[in-house]
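The instructor's notes for this session suggest beginning with a concrete chain rather than abstract definitions. Hand out the sequence below and ask the class to guess, before any prediction is shown, which regions might be ordered.
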Amino acid sequence: MKESNIDKEQILEIYKKIGLNVKKLRQEKGISQLALSLAIGHKAVGTVSMAELCTNNKHFNIEHLVKIADVLEVDVCEFFK
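After discussion, reveal the predicted structure:
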């Protein structure tokens, strides 16, 4: 089996791209960070806020992305473009 050539910096760039795409789609839908946070089961904006900007190594996981896609009524693939 082939070993992956993707390094930590490349993964970080992917997380940043996903976060910015979530932010863009959320704003296009007119949904606040707090409203999105509550809709995906969080009590505060911290997770969404930090993950959108990939701050403090915070990023969205698959569960977050599936729930966010449902709330925003978009295909989860939109976050990876």
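Then share the key points. Residues 8-28 form the longest helix (21 residues). The helical segments are 8-28, 33-39, 46-53, 62-72.
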